[in-house]
Amino acid sequence: MNIYKLLKSRAEAQKPVRVIVIGAGKFGTMFLSQARLTPGIHVLGIADLSVKRAKSALASTGWPAEQYAATSAAKALAQGTTFLTEDADRLIQAGGVDVVIEATGVPEAGVHHALAAIERGRHVVMVNVEADVLCGPLLAAKAKRAGVVYTMAYGDQPALICEQVDWARSIGLEVIAAGKGTLYQPEFHASTPDTVWGHYGLTEERARQSGMNAKMFNSFLDGTKSGIEMAAVANATGLTPAPGGLTFPACEVGELASRLIPDTDGGTLHHKGQVEVVSSRGRDGNDLENDLRWGVYVTFAAPTDYVKNCFADYGLITDTSGTYSALWRPYHLIGLELGVSVAYAALLNQPTGSADAFRGDVVATAKRDLQKGEMLDGEGGFAVWGRLMVANDSLSLGAIPIGLAHGVKLKNTIKEGQIITWADVDMGSDIESSIAYKTRREMEQTFKPESSKAANRSPSPGPAAKAASK
Length: 470
Hints:
The two termini are 41 Å apart. The chain folds into two domains: 3-156 and 335-348, NAD(P)-binding Rossmann-like Domain (Rossmann fold); 157-334 and 359-470, no CATH class. By secondary structure, it is of the alpha/beta class. Helices cover 36% and strands 17% of the residues. The strands form four sheets. A six-stranded parallel sheet has the order 3-2-1-4-5-6, with helices on both faces. Strands 8-7-9-10 form a four-stranded mixed sheet. The protein contains 18 helices and 15 strands.
C-alpha cells in the first residue's frame, strides 16, 4: 500500500527505477502510456524488431519525440531519456538497468531474454505467459539463485488471481478455486484464424482496421490462452487442474460461491484447490447477464460457524449452506497496471506471482484429423490448441507443450482431440538446438511435479466435463 510513496521517494532522490521494455505490442504500449506518468520510473530503453513500430507506440501514447531521441543507452541513462533499438540483448547488457520487461509473446524469445537478464543480474517481469508456462519454474529458480526477482505481470489475469489467492490465505481462509472468465463454447476448440472473427461477431475488415491479429485472438478463443494462464496460476499457487483440464462452466458472478465448489457439495469442481475458467456464455449460445468475461475470482470456505455467521452478517454471497463464498474483480487493465510489478520487484524485491513448482502444463491437441507429414503451426493456428493438464500426466504421456508445437512435422496420423506426443513428431534440428527446447528439457529433468489427487487419474479425452455443460 506504500508503493506510490516509495516510487515518489525514488523520484525525489533522482534515483528512478530504470526499466527496459522488450516488445512494443499492445501490452508493452499500454505500460508505456502509464510509465511516462509514473514518478520514480525511467524507461531507459525499448527493444522491438521494428523501431518504427516502437516510435508509433510512443507517439500514440503521448510521448514527446525528444524523449526517445537518444542515440545510445548510455546517453539515455545520462539524459533521463529513452533509447530505441532492434537489439534486445544490447539493452539487457546496458549499464544501469534494474528491470527487464519481456513482452514479446514468443516463447523462444522470452526464455532467451529471461536467461540473459538473470545472468546479468536484472529483475524480470515476464509478460510472456507462453514462455513462463513452458519454462517458468526453472527460470524462477535460476532467478532466485542469482538474487533477482522473476515475476508474473500485474494487470494480466494470472498475477491478479495470485493476488486474490494470497489475500484469502493470508487471512486464514481455505481457497477452494481460483481463475478467470472468458467467452467459451465447446466448438471454439476447433476455431482457426479463418473462423475466429465470426465467433467474436466481427467482420474481417473491422478486425483488420483495429489492428487485431487473427492468430493471437484465436488463441484467446480456442481455449489455449485460458489453459496457459491457469497453468501459470497452478505453478505459482499450489492449486491444481482437474484431471481432464478446464471445463469452462457457464457461471454468473452471483453463482460463483455455489458452482465453483466441489461437486460433492453441489458444485462443478473435481477437487478443492482447483484452477478453473468460467464461461460468459451458456451452452445454449446465450450470453449471461452478469458474466465475468474480463475478470478474475477466488472461492473460499469458512473454517468455523463463527466465520459463516460473519459471511452472513456482512452480506457475502454464499452457497445454500453458507460455508462457501467468493470474491471477484470484474475487470483487468493488463499493461496499464504493469508498473505494480516493476515497483514490487525493484523496491520490495518481491514478485507479483511466480512459479515455485511444476504443477500444470499445456499440451498440443489436434483441432481436426491431422495427417502424417503435416506441419504444426502452434498457438492459435489451424492444427492444434493447448489443453491444460496436470504436469505429472503430461510428462507421463510424453506430451508436447504448446509452446514448442510450431514448425514441427508429424510422423504419425493424429485424430481430432488427440494429444500429440514427442513420439508423434520430428522436432527438427533447429528446434532441438533452440534455447527454449533445451531449457524446457532441463526443467522436466529438474522438477518432479508435486503429487496430488488430481495427478493420480488419467486425463479425459474430451474438452470439457459433462457437468460443466449444465
